[in-house]
Design a protein that fits this description.
Blueprint lengths: L4 E4 L5 E7 L2 H16 L9 E9 L2 H19 L1 E14 L2 E12 L12 E2 L5 E5 L2 E9 L1
Helix pairs in contact: 1-2
Length: 142
């Protein structure tokens, strides 16, 4: 099995690269990496569904908005992502629309906090698409 994501060295923040056979799969794996910074995803249960819809003028802004939604959901509702079960990215006018369904659980004492992500940044962000493979690189403020 190909790796879904890897953490990269960064002096102050957390940096990762997420991979996929498509842009959608790379976005899904970026969400998994984001959870991996904060929690042990193996210990998170898939009890609750969350629908996520974001729009942006370009793919980098779309990725920031998508990942930022999980930071928001954790802060506002205590929602911890287990996995993204579906995700589509469509062109909408001059921009993009992303629709996803995520499964997760509410934060409780059983969830060991590994790190705290304050924000998703544009620093060192890259999105590379080639035939049959894609990767996204993200730095988050911790």
């Amino acid at each position: 099995m190909e790796k879904k994501y890897e953490f990269l060295d960064h002096t102050a923040d957390a940096k990762f690269r997420a991979y996929g056979k498509s842009l959608e799969e790379a976005f899904v794996n970026a969400a998994a990496a984001l959870t991996g910074i904060m929690f042990d995803a193996e210990k998170v249960e898939a009890k609750t569904n969350k629908s996520i819809q974001v729009e942006a003028g370009d793919l980098k802004s779309l990725l920031v908005a998508f990942l930022g939604e999980f930071v928001y959901l954790l802060d506002a509702e205590g929602f911890i992502l287990k996995k993204v079960v579906s995700l589509t990215i469509n062109k909408k006018g001059s921009g993009y629309r992303l629709a996803a369904v995520a499964k997760g659980d509410r934060y409780s004492d059983k969830n060991e906090v590994l790190g705290d992500v304050k924000a998703v940044t544009y620093a060192e962000m890259e999105i590379k698409e080639e035939k049959g493979k894609c990767w996204v690189q993200v730095v988050v403020d911790i």
